[in-house]
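Notes from hallway chat w/ T.B., transcribed later so I don't forget. T.B. wanted the structure written out for a chain they're using in a teaching module, and asked if we could keep both sequence and structure tokens in one place. Agreed to drop them here.
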Amino acid sequence: MIKRKRYVKVSGIVRREGKHYTAWCPELDVSTFGDSVDEASRNLGDAVELYLDTIDEMGEAEEILSGKGLKSCGELEPSDRVYLTSWDAAVRA
């Protein structure tokens, strides 16, 4: 039997650092980078999903997420994919 995944709402911050863009999810303290904003955003989505899958497989998801003040927002079908679709962007004035 394939297990359904839960999902949580988190945010992502992408900023330029030298020649690359770093992406960080402050709620989970997960980060990554890419050569463009889009690549860094996609990489962050993959990193967040891997982190959540890992803590779930370890049986520690509820404890870790509640310790970070996060709650499950619902369930996904096994074939569903989570996409990060919107960002707030800070622009220097």
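Follow-up for T.B.: The first strand starts at residue 5 and ends at 7. Might be a good example for the class.
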